[in-house]
Every structure is written in structure tokens, then in C-alpha cells.
Amino acid sequence: MQHFTEMAKTWDTPEKVERNIQYANEIKNFLPKDHSLKILDIGCGTGLLGGQFLNETNTLIGVDTSSGMLEVFNGKFQGLNNSKSYLMDMTKTDLPETGFDLIVSAMAFHHIKDTFPMLSILKEKLNKNGILAIIDLDEEDGTFHPDPKNMGVHHFGFSHDQNISWAKETSIELLERKIVHTVEKNEKAYPIFLAVYKK
Ligand SMILES: C[S@@+](CC[C@H](N)C(=O)[O-])C[C@H]1O[C@@H](n2cnc3c(N)ncnc32)[C@H](O)[C@@H]1O
After folding, report:
1. Total domains, the chain
2. From the CA of 136, how far away is ligand 1's center (Å)?
3. 20 and which of 7, 48, 148, 179 could share a cystine (Cβ 3.0–4.6 Å)?
4. Protein residue closest via CA to atom 10 of ligand 1
């Protein structure tokens, strides 16, 4: 997506890095400690979230539809922990990788038009007892993005009920759903949720 490719080189800020360290620490509470993990970051961007798991992973795979974002991802992680990226939309093209212990996604699901097919695909890619951790905007009034139509926004965040219906429809267990951060923007507060699922 052109919008993200233009922003890729200046995407990372100290605030975003700080936020993603916090998200990753929350997710680490749900991970096994006894073996190295195969990890997928979906809508990885520059790898702000996936990159926080380098001590836990033997393989970090990033998937994104923006070539600019993946250039930055590759620049950071190429050669580290078998890192690899794929430029693709997984609802349209099959990812030639499977057997993940952990799939993470931060601020990408609101850009994914058909969330249920995506969730089914991600479930298939998880190992048994694998963890899927999604970070995104709580349901909002459509003001978070200045120009949602031209920014590829398909959802104005997701409610707790929507997170529960993802679990029901995909037959995956919702372990926890909580607000982990609040983004302050234009004098408004936008809560960010973490939803953790187990296959
Ligand atoms: C708001 S950015 C978040 C990037 C990164 N996860 C982060 O938190 O910094 C959303 C990302 O999702 C990607 N994206 C949008 N639609 C996608 C899709 N269908 N499949 C994979 N990635 C997608 C965009 O290219 C962009 O890099």
C-alpha cells in the first residue's frame, strides 16, 4: 500500500518502540519458556512487535503488503534468527511457511477487509497450543485515521464482543482480552486492546 511505503523510513519512533516492548512483555506471559519459537508477524510493518521476540525465537517471519515496510524490516533483521519476509496478502496467496508457535499482529487487522478468512488461515498455520496475539484499536468512532478511505482502513477498531466472535467462529480459545495502552490524538483517547488466543 502506497501510504505505508511512503511512511516506512520514518515509521519507527521512540514512543512506538516503547509501546511495542510493553505489548511484547504482555504476550511473553503466555509463551512456553522451554523451547525456541517459530514466530510470524502479520502486517509486520518494520517489525516493531515481532522484533521484540528475538530472544525467544529461532525463526522470525514477517508478512506485509507494503514493500517499503518490508525493506526496513529486512534491513533490521536479515541474517538474525532465520528472519525472512514475504510481500503478500495471506487471504489471497498461500504463505509457504507453517508450524508457528506464536503469531502476532499489531495495528494491522483494521486494514484487513475479511478478518474471518484471515483468522482461519492463521489458525491453520499455528501449531497445537500455539498462541495468536492481536493488538489493535478498540472500537472507535472513525476519527483515528484522518482519511480512512485512502488509508486502507476497513474497520473502525474492534469491540470485545467482536474479539469473542472471532474465537467462536474460528474455534480457537480466547485466553485474555484487555486494554494495554491508550493513544492520545487530537485531544481524544483511543484505547488499544490485546487479544490472546490459543489453538
Ligand atoms: C498501522 S501499520 C502497523 C505496522 C506494524 N505492525 C506496527 O505496529 O508498527 C499496518 C500494516 O499492515 C499492513 N497491511 C495492510 N493490509 C495488510 C494485509 N492484508 N496483509 C498484510 N499486511 C497488511 C500495512 O502495509 C502496514 O504495514
Report:
1. 1
2. 11
3. 48
4. 108
